[in-house]
Amino acid sequence: MATYELDTTVDTCHWGFYDAALAPVMTIASGDTLIVKTESGRKDFLGKHPERISDNLRRILETMEQGPGAHIMTGPVAVEGAEPGDVLEIKIHGVKPRYDWGYNGFRPLVGGLPEDFPYTRVVLVEIDEENETGDWGAGVKVPLGPFFGNFGVAPASVLGRVPSSPPGEWGGNTDCKEFTAGSTIYLPVFNEGALFSVGDGHGCQGDGEANINGIEMGLIGTFEMTVRKDMNIKTPRAETESHYILMGFDPILDNAAKMALRETIQFLGELRGMSRDDAYRLCSLAVDLRVTQIVNGTKGVHAMVPKSLFE
Prior knowledge:
Shape: globular
Largest sheet: 9 strands, mixed
Low-confidence stretches: none
Strand content: 35-45%
Helix content: 10-25%
Radius of gyration: 19 Å
Strand order of the largest sheet: 1-5-18-7-16-19-20-22-21
Structural class: mainly beta
């Protein structure tokens, strides 16, 4: 299997949306490995922190038109053989900082407490990769846990251009911190080639993503992409070494939790042949429901099913 590298430039990214009409910037075979170098930044950094901005990011911020979302997405990448109804398996072999800086900010009308913080504050976060910490001068350093908050396949073409802000059945802005090195993500395919894009690098983030940002930053990710003809799923699923992860998305948090539970009940039936009654009981006794994020309009809940239950 081959390994490909993809840098983020004005020719290889799209800003703020997913769209099945986008032509792929690269085509790889099923089983190939893709190394992606992403960018993240704000236009006001051009004046505030010009020395930290890469040439590629500068050109993106200065020349590209931003879509309805905030995320600089690298891709799309077509995977040969992927067809609607298939599943794209994404093994994340590595995620690491690309630069020695990131940022965190909040602004009016968004985040978990918009009524308490009706103003904009953005801080630069210094990244210490050796000690794996982030520091913005508040007297506390946070441990790094890099992951991509936003990646997915192209949505069904009937949806047209979809903002990068919400999560959905295509993946998108899930903001799940479990999706880091060592995890495997499964996404349903809606278009020929799947058309995978990735962005929204986070140096770290707490569950919930309270003020609407993690440590936003450029990352380098290593992904092994495999087309699965033997799977049939409707929404994203994932697994780590220790857990299976089922997702729920809805503008109402209660409904996101219900979706995650229903996905888990269905999954337990597929995995173990469990009855719905027994799977529901197991969810109550051993499955953790975690709030993925509360800030993207469409909120997220992920169910953590311990693999140790079945050993």
